[in-house]
Amino acid sequence: MVTTLPYGSWPSPISAELLATGGTRLGGPQLVGDEVWWTEGIATEEGRNAIVRTDGPVHRPEDAPGQVTVLPSPFSSRSRVHEYGGTAWTALPAASDGAERPLVLFVNFTDQRIHAFREGERPRPLSPVGPEVTTAGGPSLRWACPTPVTLPGGEQEVWWICEDHTGGEQGPRTGADGAPHIERYIAAVPLDGSAANDPAAIRRVTPASRFVAHPRLSPDGGSLAWLSWEHPQMPWDGTRLHVAPLVGGSTGAGTVVAGAADISVLQPEWLDDQRLLFISDESGWWNPWLWSADEGARQVLVAEEEFAGPMWQLGETSFQVLDADHALVQHGRAATSLSVLTVSSGQLTGLDCPFTLVSSAQVRADGLVVLAGASPTRFAAIHLARLDREGPSAPVLGEPVQLRSSREDAPDPAVLPTAESIEVPLPDGGVVHAIVYRPRQEGFEGREGELPPFIARVHGGPTAHVPPVLSLPVAYYTSRGLGVVEVNYGGSTGYGRAYRDRLRGQWGVVDVTDTVAVVEHLVAEGVADGERLAIEGGSAGGWTVLACLTRTSAFAAGVSSYGVSDLERLRQDTHDFESRYIDGLVGPYPERRDLYVERSPLTHVDELEVPVLLLQGDEDRIVPPSQSEMVRDALADKGIPHAYLLFEGEQHGFRAADSIIRATEAALSFYGQVLGFSPLCMPVLELRRS
């Protein structure tokens, strides 16, 4: 039997509590000896990142061990390098020093100090407390991307990327551009704790650059490869690959062997002592390249698909070297596939993998694969599989077996939506990529003649990408009778450099026109109600929300989460990693101040005529609360219905369960009031006009 109810008012088993507390934020799995380790975000413990492991060895994918929380509360493994952080922990196998359990090293979120411990012990600091630096907005010494290395003499060390706000011997100061002087470099931090009270015990391995990433020591310990880039480049604009001899535990600047200000190079990995495999977009796509001292750099494979993604977080990888001629690679456009690459021939052998998103994959010497994957029918999860490369045929990936899911309480498939990837034609002959999720819950339908309200969701970044995978926040809406479309507007990754570069100098223009083109297409196709269109997004997505609301009449309402509203103020207030990002997205400052003013939604707030919900964390260093508060004040001055919710203790994105519940329910109540439907059993959000 089918029940007919207005779109938006269907009863749904997917609650805000389910979004906040039922799921688990999983961090990239690692193989530590015979065990699998990973991180989990615990929303009920203020969002802390715990390190966990299997409670026993894993020898086969069919093994189903339980798990043990390794990192005790209240410690949280999370780095603030670049504010977005990255890999913040590693574990040295017990066999390396004769101990019974691995030595765990991690960055503690609150003080950003490196700590070490073995299970059952209280973590002890290895790195010093950085001196107070006002402009740091927190600890002045930060660490990320731990890299265990073995020196030529056999000594084991762990190298880290250090973000140093102290200014060294000269102390805190500003650079020629007026910005605080910040250095980043690769450093060796002693494992014996001697640097905890003596910063001089830390050895700099590389010279300082504005940004560094991905240190890799050659197998013989003789050469170091790493990446660097300087302002105003972002790592997807241009990076440089250095190779330098390691002498006395340190290097000079070495030789730049690949990359440039307009060529993005990512993830160098040694195949042997003489050759590096890396990813470069010199061809227009992030493809595999090879460098050797004898032959220089050459492209291994030419393919119009991506073998990497934007380096927002340090330590992310998209391939693993299997031997001197083979690598396990992740690649694709909208979706991700797994293949084995033969470096010498450039041959790509596809593996049968059921996921449309593979965010990490590691292979143990015995062929056990641990991977993090998701699909339109499976929530993000850690899986185990077997890679067979010894048989008479091509490499074969066995059926993945789930080890740990981000959602152990997945709803009935009857209330989950179906992803439809679409390409919307543009007047200039190009296309916009998007993913449509129509309202869906078995047993319910909308009233005859009624079209559903639709919410356009725009991702942050803006250099980012939304893959076609199962999303509970999307299902929260679709199971109630609301449609959702995820827009991968020009500037999104996954479709090559030319598509990414459509946004260069055009932020606030291309993202707006692309998003409007998508919703207008849905209206023209009879999929969405053109009078009941809303838009939501966070960070750079919040900017696009506000830009669409102030520059177009396509939407009846918008929800901006920690969104950008004033480019000049953002340029002054935001953190170092993104402080010159806008140069490429809009133009150099102050030379093109006119564009900064003209593009800012705050400049056009007089044209804003529809209600807005603003969600903001009070500790956000990336998009400070002032960005939302200026919009709030402008809405109040115009008497437009609005609400501003400030979440205590939250940074750029909400992690605590109470914050997630409150924000989710507020958004649904807001949409109901503005778009004309009554969500069931939902606290009513108070909208103000002053």
UniProtKB/TrEMBL annotation:
GO terms for molecular function: serine-type peptidase activity. InterPro entries: 6-blade_b-propeller_TolB-like, AB_hydrolase_fold, Peptidase_S9_cat, Xaa-Pro_dipeptidyl-ppase/CocE. Coiled coil: none annotated. Residues 474-676 form the Peptidase S9 prolyl oligopeptidase catalytic domain. GO terms for biological process: proteolysis. SUPFAM superfamilies: alpha/beta-Hydrolases, DPP6 N-terminal domain-like. Residues 121-141 are annotated as: Disordered. This is Prolyl oligopeptidase family serine peptidase. It comes from Candidatus Brachybacterium merdavium.
